[in-house]
Amino acid sequence: MISITAAIIFILFGFILMKYPPKSINKVYGYRTPLAMKNQDTWDESQKHSGFSMMILGAFNGIIGVWSIALPRGINNEKVQTIILLVGVVIMIIFEEMHLRKLFNKDGSRKKRGK
Q: What sections of the protein cross the membrane (predicted)?
């Protein structure tokens, strides 16, 4: 049941983050890592991209949740579902940081597109 609850939360917040991202850098909500908070450009890019990633993670957890109900074997364990969720969050953060580092320098300036 943890996976289905997490799926709903991640999809909902991912959608909100994509469609209604925080307009300015803040310390309350949004994807807040040091690189994401360097400047407004990194902030805007990170909010939209992380919202999409949250929706993907939510969909994955929804599949895990439905699978745990349909085939209640080892994955129906709350500990297993929690571990899957936490690993997914870590992977999402790594993916987001790789995306930002591909587009921005460490100081937050956009990388120039080369040939």
A: 50-71, 83-100
**Residue 6: which residues within 8 A CB-CB, separation 6 or more?**
58, 61, 65, 81, 85
As a whole number of angstroms, the distance between CA 115 and CA 64 comes to 42
Helix (H) or strand (E) holding 45: helix 40-70
Burial class (CB in 10 A: 0-12, 13-18, 19+), 114: exposed
> In DSSP terms, which residues pair with 104 in a beta bridge?
110
pLDDT digit of tens for each residue in the chain (115 aa)? 777 888 999 999 999 999 999 999 998 889 999 999 999 999 999 999 999 999 999 999 898 888 877 776 656 677 777 888 899 999 999 999 999 999 999 999 999 876 5
d(CA 95, CA 92): 5
